[in-house]
Design the sequence.
């Protein structure tokens, strides 16, 4: 798992770095949002029970279309930019809740037996 | 096992990085928008949202007096997600870099999704090689640079749907159904609808053909009706809120055309207009070595007929059917041809790597033979596919072929200094594509004749403003060629009493009414 986390981190930094070299701050902003959204969606998919690589690859278009669907609907009321930030936050919160819930249930499961 | 997972993730990131580098080549140096006729349309749907920070339901002013208004009674005729996504990227990363980064990212999906599917079906090595090859697929690149078409991204999701179909069907046949894949497949179909419905046809047809083949092979139904029902319900729930944006222009005119029967014996069916003849040339698009390798791959799959082989062959047959839809009066085979490399490249790579197993030799020798063949394949891809793709991407819409800083300056003045109700008549701009770009970048109703127009008609004076754009001609020839000089003479004689409200870089705008 540690090795994989290193690959995730290295890969994400490489993508953002390449976008920085090619497009400066515009590239960095896009890169960071892509990485955060994709990782959040992939985390949800992994928790649902899909394989890691499938989750990452589906996570990219799924997060883009999740954000754009929600932003489209909410954008009429709060503006597209605000709606987008809100949808990214919702995505991160869902991912965090799913990970926290699963780690809590693992802890419960591994509770040492009473004497 | 953990090591191989790390390698897989490493390959995925490697593929993302090389695809990103190559597919952003058209706007790495020159960051002005590019693309042929439809690109400006896709760009402006996003741009209209990002410029106002509001989503749109109905087509904005720049579409007035265009045929797009009839497509869906003045409403958007695409599901709004793709263009909203581009608008979001514009808000983050700027009007042009943002939009084109989004288009590039969505267009390279096939490289990654193909990796996931082929790894599941045939293993890591064929997946890595075929995805590397797909980075340089000419047809995908052409559709991307010509029109930043949403269907490039939607076709890119087909392998993810087939992955889910395969996982679900095989698990069901093994009596341990993983229904989660049936539901994921349904979500992917909804995502395809949101990006471009055309690719749903390929996904659905491939799954149907694969289903029939599995029934014939295993003599049992390869799915549970309850799971299929839930899957359909998921699609309906996700798509229903956006159904008003769905138009069915093609299906409304379905009819059997018997005169198209002979086209069944031609691989590409009946060629359509709109693309150069070269587009219909297999070798011009894919190089000379894909066809023989793909034939080997198809033969070996037909001989082996394992479930994974049958899935690939079902996909190939679905592609053949899509290519020949002119039999039913449909005219979309031009776009379906993009799928060709997605299917044939993996089939070719799998075929080549399977060759050593046909020759009786020791396991070690077979492994060495596979490594040697892989090396030969990679060298061939680098030698014969990378250079042409690099040239297409690097030289896409150079010089005055794309909108110039002078033209962008004029459109930005119009966008910032005039009212959205104002109407414009455009003269002088060198090509139809660029006239459309002038229209969408100014976000105003801008009328013009599709062909070159070198004299002033009465129509010009029925608009709020007239635009005279000589910039392309002067950049190309150093002066005005004869017919354009005649237009300038008419401009001077008709507007000698007026001062242009904008005059810069050989572009002038006059207020009329």
Sequence:
């Amino acid at each position: 798992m540690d090795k994989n986390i290193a690959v995730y981190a290295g890969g994400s930094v490489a993508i953002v770095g390449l976008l920085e070299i090619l497009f400066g701050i515009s590239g960095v902003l896009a890169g960071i949002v892509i990485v955060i959204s994709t990782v959040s969606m992939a985390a949800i998919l992994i928790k649902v029970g899909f394989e890691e690589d499938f989750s990452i690859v589906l996570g990219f278009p799924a997060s883009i279309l999740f954000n754009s669907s929600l932003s489209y609907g909410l954008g009429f009321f709060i503006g597209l930019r605000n709606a987008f930030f809100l949808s990214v936050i919702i995505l991160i919160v869902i991912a965090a809740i799913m990970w926290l819930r699963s780690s809590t249930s693992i802890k419960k499961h591994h509770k040492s037996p009473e004497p | 096992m953990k090591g191989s997972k790390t390698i897989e993730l490493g390959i995925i990131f490697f593929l993302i990085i090389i695809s990103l580098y190559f597919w952003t080549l058209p706007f790495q140096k020159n960051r002005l928008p590019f693309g042929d006729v439809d690109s400006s349309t896709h760009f402006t749907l996003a741009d209209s949202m990002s410029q106002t920070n509001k989503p749109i339901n109905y087509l904005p002013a720049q579409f007035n007096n265009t045929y797009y208004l009839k497509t869906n009674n003045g409403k958007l005729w695409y599901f709004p997600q793709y263009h909203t996504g581009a608008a979001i990227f514009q808000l983050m990363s700027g009007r042009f870099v943002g939009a084109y980064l989004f288009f590039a990212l969505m267009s390279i999906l096939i490289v990654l999704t193909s990796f996931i599917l082929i790894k599941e079906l045939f293993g890591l090595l064929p997946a890595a090689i075929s995805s590397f090859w797909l980075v340089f697929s000419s047809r995908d690149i052409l559709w991307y640079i010509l029109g930043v078409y949403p269907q490039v991204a939607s076709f890119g999701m087909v392998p993810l749907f087939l992955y889910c179909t395969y996982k679900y069907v095989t698990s069901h046949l093994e009596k341990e159904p993983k229904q989660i894949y049936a539901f994921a497949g349904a979500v992917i179909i909804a995502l395809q609808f949101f990006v471009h419905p055309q690719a749903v046809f390929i996904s659905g047809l491939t799954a149907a053909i694969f289903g029939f083949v599995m029934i014939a092979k295993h003599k049992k139904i390869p799915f549970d009706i309850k799971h299929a029902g839930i899957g359909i319900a998921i699609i309906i729930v996700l798509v229903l809120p956006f159904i008003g944006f769905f138009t069915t222009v093609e299906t409304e005119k379905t009819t059997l055309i018997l005169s198209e029967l002979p086209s069944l014996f031609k691989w590409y069916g009946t060629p359509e207009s709109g693309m150069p003849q070269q587009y219909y040339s297999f070798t011009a698009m894919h190089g000379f070595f894909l066809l023989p390798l793909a034939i080997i791959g198809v033969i070996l799959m037909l001989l082996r007929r394992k479930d994974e082989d049958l899935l690939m062959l079902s996909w190939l047959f679905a592609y053949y059917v899509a290519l020949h839809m002119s039999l039913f009066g449909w005219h979309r085979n031009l776009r379906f041809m993009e799928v060709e490399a997605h299917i044939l490249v993996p089939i070719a790579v799998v075929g080549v790597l399977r060759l050593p197993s046909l020759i009786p030799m020791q396991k070690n020798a077979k492994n060495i033979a596979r490594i040697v063949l892989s090396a030969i394949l990679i060298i061939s891809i680098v030698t014969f596919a990378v250079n042409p793709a690099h040239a297409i991407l690097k030289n896409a819409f150079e010089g005055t072929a794309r909108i110039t800083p002078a033209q962008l300056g004029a459109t930005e003045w119009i966008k910032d200094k005039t009212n959205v109700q104002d109407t414009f008549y455009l003269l002088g701009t060198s090509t139809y594509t660029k006239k459309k770009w002038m229209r969408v970048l100014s976000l105003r109703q801008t009328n013009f004749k599709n062909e070159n127009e070198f004299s002033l008609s009465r129509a010009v004076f029925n608009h709020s403003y007239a635009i005279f754009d000589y910039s392309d001609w002067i950049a190309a020839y150093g002066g005005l060629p004869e017919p354009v000089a005649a237009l300038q003479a008419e401009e001077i004689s008709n507007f000698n009493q007026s001062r242009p409200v904008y005059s810069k870089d050989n572009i002038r705008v006059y207020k009329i009414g």
